[in-house]
Write a structure and sequence with these properties.
This protein has 27 helices and twelve strands. It starts with a helix and ends in a 14-residue tail after the last helix. An eight-stranded mixed beta sheet has the order 5-12-11-6-10-7-9-8, sandwiched between helices. A four-stranded antiparallel beta sheet has the order 2-3-1-4. The protein is flat and about 135 Å long. It has four domains: 76 residues, no CATH class; 150 residues, Alpha-Beta Plaits; 126 residues, no CATH class; 240 residues, P-loop containing nucleotide triphosphate hydrolases (Rossmann fold). The chain is 59% helix and 10% strand. It has 719 residues and is α/β, with parallel strands linked by helices.
Length: 719
């Protein structure tokens, strides 16, 4: 049952991860479609400007087997004709530069319009001369273009080769494909007619000289065999080599054993006479007999310790245990000496064995070197005999062939199978395929760029990054709200059900935290400006005001935005005026008529806002407000901009940290939280704002599904 649940959980996580990857694509779908269509349109325009190309193909046979009526002497004696390497050489010959020059001169292609014009048609006037040559093309340019358009492709498993040529002219492509095959046939005829005639007299002279060399080498080999008494040199060398290998292995093993024992011997010599040091050596202390005596000694010592608690030192039992302990200690000492003597004997025996094996190894090496010299000389004489014999036999065979066939040496059978015909339809460009490929490739590349950009952003823009964020709890994820051109920003937030539900999730997280009682005074701050802390503070205050009396204080005196968002006079008296004692409380606080929410704006911006917030009067005002309001929410400046938020955080019960889901870097978030933690600020958690790519259902439903005692209150109607 648990296995099934784990599999279901894994599949759910995989679906969520895929959804988070595809969400950026869906949110930017119109941009992706726009750029994809632009690139596809450019590709379509480019393809429409290209001249149509035509491909003609001729099939040529380059075979190693000739027909029965032209059977050669080699075929008669079952000898092979041309090898695969020779056939491949012919294919490369067809692709070579010199062969291309032959075809170009035969067809006079240097002056042909095909090689003196560009690849664009004349649909647009300004492209008429693009790619056109001002003067006649050079031979190098024609050869390069000829080789680019020529294709020589062997047909696998056959002796056939396809000769294809692509041209802007259907007639020219057919002429060139056929001419390549004709030129190759002419080339083969030239090779056969230009081959030099080999005379039989020259072969006879060579055979006489090779016969003398063969006889002399055989006599030298036999004389050396008799002088050295060699019967089976290879067998003797093999036996000595095996013996040498065995002795080398034994020497290495003996030397290793002696080296290991030498270390123990040195330590024994170093601590000679010191029984305590000797017994601490690993080789001695790990000895089975000594370990058994040590265990018995421990048992006697424990017994002695237990008896010492009951009896005095002169008690018979105590005396007996002491005697037993001394006897064990003497046995341990004697055992240590016995082990030391045994190890020294083993060391000297190992040294003697090393010396003995080295002597035997030296003797075997001398024998092996002597036999190797004999074998090398014998092999040299044998190779000379075999080489002379092989040369003699080869020249004898060539002499017979020359007598039978004269000077015919052709190894290839070449003929046309199919000549090229004039192509009826163009081969390129395939406009539909190019446009479709461009569309698919553009769509894939743009999508990949967007996905990689989202994955590489060091922000909290995905569920995976949220799950790996451990600096503070994630209280809620607020979606990004799109404000239409004819719509006010505040109305967009108010009418969006996703944003309203996310704010209620944040409110629930603050009210129903099991670890502590709900905070009464809440500060809302962020890392940098423009992360939405003013909007979150205002709507969180309105959410709380649905069921209790709430005061919202705008403590960001440097860049106030709440008054502006609520269409209030930016210069109306507020917190700064209240702290400066220029106005009364009833003059500074404004009531939101829609809900039970009072708002204390920042007021006139003072020269030094930090000095105002550090006054005892500010702390006293918050305490006084606490007697009249169920909840107080304070909107503070960003942590990285000024230190106002750090000062205010010491006066509140909870701090909510707002971050922009797609812009705020994790380093900024971590450093801001560290600044608050240094002053022991009561950080409640992080709220991710302006989220585009995160599935917010998990966070919106987190606190509603885990607690059954939450009552969802209907929101008040706003006028």
């Amino acid at each position: 049952m648990k296995t099934i649940e784990n599999k279901n959980l894994i599949s759910i996580n995989e679906e969520v991860a895929l959804k988070e990857i595809l969400t950026p694509l869906w949110s930017r779908r119109w941009k992706i479609i726009f750029f994809t269509l632009i690139l596809t349109l450019l590709a379509a325009v480019y393809v429409s400007l290209l001249k149509p190309s035509y491909s003609a193909t001729a099939i040529l046979q380059i075979g190693t087997n000739k027909p029965a009526n032209t059977l050669s002497i080699n075929d008669a004696f079952n000898e092979s004709n041309a090898s695969k390497e020779q056939i491949q050489t012919q294919f490369e010959l067809l692709r070579s530069r010199k062969f291309a020059e032959r075809v170009i001169y035969q067809l006079n292609l240097v002056k042909h319009a095909e090689f003196n014009s560009g690849k664009y048609n004349d649909k647009l006037v300004f492209l008429t001369n693009v790619g056109q040559r001002k003067s006649q093309a050079t031979v190098s340019d024609v050869v390069r273009k000829f080789q680019q358009n020529l294709s020589i492709v062997p047909i696998a498993g056959t002796e056939l080769v396809k000769i294809s040529y692509v041209s802007f002219s259907a007639q020219l492509s057919q002429e060139i494909a056929n001419q390549v095959g004709v030129t190759y046939l002419q080339y083969q005829d030239e090779i056969h007619s230009a081959s030099k005639e080999t005379t039989s007299q020259w072969l006879v002279d060579q055979l006489e000289e090779l016969g003398k060399k063969l006889q002399l080498s055989e006599l030298s080999l036999q004389a050396y065999r008799e002088a050295e008494g060699i019967v089976d040199i290879h067998g003797v060398v093999g036996l000595v080599g095996s013996q040498l290998t065995e002795l080398t292995s034994e020497t290495l093993k003996a030397a290793k054993l002696a080296d290991d024992l030498a270390i123990s011997h040195q330590e024994i010599q170093k601590y000679a006479g010191d029984i305590a040091k000797l017994s601490e050596l690993h080789e001695i202390s790990s000895h089975a007999t000594l370990m058994q005596l040590r265990r018995e000694e421990e048992k006697v010592e424990r017994k002695m310790f237990e008896l010492s608690k009951r009896y005095g030192p002169k008690h018979p039992k105590q005396i007996a245990v002491n005697a037993e302990l001394m006897s064990l200690q003497n046995r341990i000492t004697q055992q240590v000496y016995d082990i030391v003597i045994s190890m020294e004997k083993e060391y000297f025996s190992a040294v003697e064995k090393v010396n003995g094996t080295k002597q035997r190894l030296d003797i075997a090496k001398k024998d092996y070197l002597r036999l190797s010299r004999l074998q090398n000389k014998f092999s040299q004489l044998t190779r000379e005999v075999d080489t002379n014999k092989e040369l003699y036999n080869n020249y004898l065979v060539r002499l017979k062939e020359a007598d039978a066939m004269g000077n015919y040496k052709s190894n290839f059978y070449v003929r046309f199978i199919d000549k090229a015909t004039v192509p009826k339809s163009q081969s390129a460009p395939n406009k539909i395929m190019v446009i479709a490929f461009t569309f698919i490739l553009s769509l894939a590349v743009i999508s990949l760029i967007i996905i990689m950009r989202e994955l590489l952003m060091d922000t909290l823009n995905s569920r995976r990054k949220l799950d790996n964020f451990n600096d503070a709890p994630i209280l809620a994820v607020l979606p990004k709200i799109k404000v239409r051109a004819h719509q006010k920003k505040e109305d967009a937030y108010t009418t969006d059900n996703r944003f309203t539900e996310a704010i209620r999730t944040l409110r629930t997280a603050l009210l129903f935290n099991n670890e502590k009682k709900p905070p009464k005074i809440i500060a809302v701050t962020s890392s940098v400006p423009n992360e939405g802390k003013s909007t979150v503070a205002l709507h969180l205050a309105r959410s709380f005001s649905e069921m209790e009396k709430v005061l919202l204080i705008e403590a960001d005196m440097r860049h106030p935005t709440i008054a502006k968002n609520m269409n209030l006079n930016e210069h109306r008296p507020g917190l700064s005026n209240l702290l400066a004692k220029t106005h009364q409380i009833n003059e500074c606080i404004i009531r939101d008529k829609n809900v039970k929410l009072d708002i204390l704006t920042s007021g006139v911006t003072p020269a030094n806002p930090l000095a105002f917030l550090s006054m005892k009067r500010f702390n006293m005002l918050i305490k006084v407000f606490g007697n009249f309001y169920d909840r107080i929410i304070i909107e503070t400046p960003p942590v990285h901009a000024v230190s106002d938020a750090v000062i205010i955080s010491k006066l509140v019960d909870s701090v909510i940290y707002i971050v922009h889901g797609n812009k705020t870097k994790r380093e900024q978030i971590s450093s801001g939280l560290r600044m608050l933690k240094q002053v022991n600020a009561p950080i409640e958690g992080v709220v991710v704002n302006h989220s585009e790519n995160i599935d917010t259902d998990k966070y919106q439903n987190k606190y509603y599904t885990e607690r059954d005692n939450i009552i969802k209150l209907a929101a008040r109607k706003r006028g």
